[in-house]
Amino acid sequence: MTRLAIVQLLPALDLGGVERGTLEIARAIVAAGHRSIVISDGGRLVERLVREGSEHIEWRIGAKSPLTLRFIAKVGALARTRKIDVIHARSRVPAWIGWLAWRRMSPAVRPRFVTTVHGMYSVSRYSEVMTYGERVIAVSRAVAEHISRAYPGCPRAKVRIIPRGVDAEEFPYGHVPDANWRARWRRDHPFLAGKRLIVLPGRVTRLKGHEAFIEVLAGLKTTYRSAHGLIVGAGRPRRMAALKKLATRLDAPVSFLGPRHDVREIIASSALVVSTSTHPESFGRTVLEALRLGIPVAGFDHGGVGEVLSDIFPSGRVAVGDTRALRERISHFLDNPPPVPRSDAYSLDAMQSSTIRLYEELAGMPRR
User: Fold this and answer.
1) Per CATH, the architecture of 179-335 is what?
2) Per-domain boundaries in the chain
3) Is the full-model pTM beyond 0.85?
């Protein structure tokens, strides 16, 4: 096997889905015997990345500034001196830098160029760069369809659907939080004792539809006095204040927990998880994590969320924006807790092996 040198480009290595995916692929690159290099502006995950065998180069490659253009020459020089085989861009500004550097190199010797479309990006010249890879990874069927609709000039033959995956060891079916966690939870949240928790995890942005969640919980309170909603995730102060004001006005039984490092435990302790995104998500990782734990999910049926539900838990699908149907589905699940089937779909191993195979196949192809 030829040992490859693979560079991943992204803005930073703080918490987030793109960042987590970068670490997961970096780990797989190392495990496959290849050389892993990540270029970013740094962040909290750098220490872990390096500990797991990758090299990190701290360049501010994701900044929306004319100064970022200086990295075009730097990426080109790195590719030549370090004999890079694959450049993999995971975000739009880094993709522009990587593609402009790649385009300047001789086709006979330059690395292969890969992009991953992580989101339903706005349709623009700026976003189009994510389709410039020799291979374009779509993180779901929904994203592949978005690429096809938005950029018909992108050949379908070069698009590869590689869904994001969840580690079965990190999210084991039937997981029960340990006694120490349960004791801390009871101590810190005594008002939740005896409640049936309905959880909406993820960043608190307008696209996540938290208003619908709050309205649904307000509508449930008379029939299900034990039902209590938890909004778990960080948001901008003005956004959080507006949602809290809405919850107070509707007298909705909802608590705001902010960002947490124990989301798995919270989900595993819940009656169900809800997804109310008003905009189709590219994947819907928290939905998959809940299902892999064996927790039911009710969510609007579009984008990656609808895709995951269709494949694993079809009864959780609700027409987009229909809060009445969502309330009725939640009520049904509370009255008749449905079993969630065990599933190996969307595994981390599959995502990693498919990506490594793509690198190896592309690197071995004849150059034009």
Assistant:
1) 3-Layer(aba) Sandwich (3.40)
2) 5-165+348-363, 179-335
3) yes
